[in-house]
Amino acid sequence: MADITYKNSAKDLTVESAEYFNEKLHIAVAVNDGKHLTLSTEKEPTAAKLNRF
Question: pLDDT in tens for each of the 53 residues of the chain?
Answer without folding.
Answer: 689 999 999 999 999 999 999 989 889 999 999 999 999 986 665 665 666 55
